[in-house]
């Protein structure tokens, strides 16, 4: 294996969504690390890391974004001077100035050239640093680090920025309360994981459609179910039947003949695999929030990643089916706005899974910790878990990337 292949094998990548005021996905920030087969994933220097994003990561993720969405890429000092953004399309790439870059004349000249070439410029992690006014003036987007500021400091900073008339992006928005505050202050874009926290409304009733889907989930989530039950579950919903047949006839399956009935699909690919696809569709359907596409993507990506990961584990381990369900149901409370315990009471799943999904310690908890660490680009935590579970960083990196690409394909196919 060549050095470049080894490098790609250990390429850890995360994409963090950026939302509009309507909670639609505006774009993604691309975050990554190269594990170098070490216990802790790390990068030797920022220039090499950004070069890898340009050469590999950007191209991979660009294939998965929708038309009109943007990708933010961090650029350290030397890469700005070398005009490395030339390799990326200006209509998609947003050049993000790291907070470690100083606004010297050379950097400002490089940024001016990028703007003339049509690139959008973003200033990362701004908290009102003294001397950063030239960056504020030249940038199109100012990313404000909400976690580093008190509410009063945040209000003052926004007031000071109004004279520049820039697009304000609130980053590290971790709950709905902070999202609402930033909305009221006039932020246009929002980055953080507020959308993946459940909003529990006392007395809220589940819609009839979601109730039906939960009943279908119950019928196919236990360790034992038969072909007739599965066929009836699918045929009871016209929309699901239609989309599932689209799945079966998609190039992904590569079946030699057109599949024209659910029963035929069961015979061709097996009811267990078909049940997994049905769970994915049902979960995607139950997501009614404006950020539903991203929630569906995360759930499905987690499921596939953990399923692939289960094949790498040595010794006593959870089955691939259990690992798939662990990831798939990990955001169920967010999707439905109800407590996880009450939702899981409706489903016949293992005690270990139920404990982990409810935030309790179990043998399955570490795997949820791993997927969350990946999504938040907490690379030290990712590396520590990989090391403690005696996994190969290269295999984990490949499986996570494969899961991201698979989830994107499935969420696209599952739309009406």
Report on the structure:
By secondary structure, the chain is α/β, with parallel strands linked by helices. The chain folds into two domains: 3-196, Alpha-Beta Barrel (TIM Barrel), CATH 3.20.20; 208-413, Hypothetical protein af1432 (Orthogonal Bundle). 51% of the residues lie in helices and 12% in strands. It has helices spanning 3-9, 46-62, 77-81, 105-116, 133-138, 151-161, 176-185, 208-221, 227-235, 238-248, 262-269, 271-285, 292-310, 320-328, 332-336, 340-344, 351-357, 365-375, 379-388, 393-413; strands at residues 11-19, 25-34, 70-75, 93-97, 120-126, 141-145, 167-171, 189-191. The chain has an eight-stranded mixed barrel with strand order 1-2-3-4-5-6-7-8, surrounded by four helices. Helix 11 crosses helix 12 (271-285). The longest helix has 21 residues, at 393-413. The protein is elongated.
What is the fold's blueprint, element by element?
Elements lengths: L2 H7 L1 E9 L5 E10 L11 H17 L7 E6 L1 H5 L11 E5 L7 H12 L3 E7 L6 H6 L2 E5 L5 H11 L5 E5 L4 H10 L3 E3 L16 H14 L5 H9 L2 H11 L13 H8 L1 H15 L6 H19 L9 H9 L3 H5 L3 H5 L6 H7 L7 H11 L3 H10 L4 H21 L3
Parallel strand pairs: 2-3, 3-4, 4-5, 5-6, 6-7, 7-8
Antiparallel strand pairs: 1-2, 1-8
Helix pairs in contact: 8-12, 10-12, 11-12, 13-14, 13-20, 18-19
């Amino acid at each position: 294996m060549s050095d470049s292949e080894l490098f790609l094998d250990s390429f850890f990548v995360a994409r963090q969504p950026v939302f509009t005021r309507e909670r639609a996905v505006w774009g993604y920030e691309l975050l990554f690390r190269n594990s170098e087969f070490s216990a802790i994933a790390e990068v030797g220097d920022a220039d090499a890391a950004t070069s890898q994003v340009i050469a590999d990561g950007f191209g991979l993720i660009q294939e998965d974004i929708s038309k009109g969405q943007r990708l933010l890429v961090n650029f350290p000092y030397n890469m700005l001077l070398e005009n490395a953004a030339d390799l990326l399309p200006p209509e998609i790439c947003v050049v993000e100035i790291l907070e470690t870059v100083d606004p010297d004349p050379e950097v400002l000249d490089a940024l001016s050239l990028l703007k003339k070439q049509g690139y959008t410029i973003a200033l990362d992690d701004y908290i009102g640093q003294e001397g950063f006014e030239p960056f504020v003036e030249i940038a199109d987007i100012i990313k404000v680090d909400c976690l580093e500021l008190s509410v009063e400091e945040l209000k003052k900073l926004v007031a000071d920025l109004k004279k520049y008339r820039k697009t304000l992006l609130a980053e590290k928005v971790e709950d709905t309360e902070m999202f609402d505050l930033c909305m009221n202050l006039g932020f246009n874009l929002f980055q953080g994981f507020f959308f993946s926290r459940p909003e529990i409304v006392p007395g809220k009733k589940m819609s009839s459609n979601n109730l039906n889907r939960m009943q279908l989930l119950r019928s196919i989530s236990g360790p034992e179910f038969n072909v007739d039950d599965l066929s009836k579950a699918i045929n009871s919903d016209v929309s699901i039947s239609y989309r599932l047949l689209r799945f079966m006839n998609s190039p992904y399956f590569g079946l030699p003949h057109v599949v024209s009935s659910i029963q035929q699909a069961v015979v061709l690919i097996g009811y267990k695999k078909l049940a997994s696809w049905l769970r994915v569709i049902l979960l995607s359907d139950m997501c009614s929030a404006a950020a539903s596409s991203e929630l569906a993507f995360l759930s499905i990506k987690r499921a596939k990643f953990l399923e692939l990961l289960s094949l790498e584990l040595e010794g006593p381990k959870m089955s691939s089916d259990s690992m798939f369900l662990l990831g798939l149901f990990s955001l169920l409370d967010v999707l439905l706005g109800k407590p996880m315990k009450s939702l899981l009471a409706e489903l016949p799943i293992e005690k270990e899974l139920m404990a982990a999904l409810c935030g309790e310690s179990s043998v399955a908890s570490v795997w949820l910790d791993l997927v969350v660490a990946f999504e938040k680009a907490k690379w030290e935590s990712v590396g520590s878990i990989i090391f403690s579970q005696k996994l190969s960083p290269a295999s984990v990196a490949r499986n996570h990337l494969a899961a991201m690409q698979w989830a994107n394909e499935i969420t696209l196919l599952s739309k009406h």
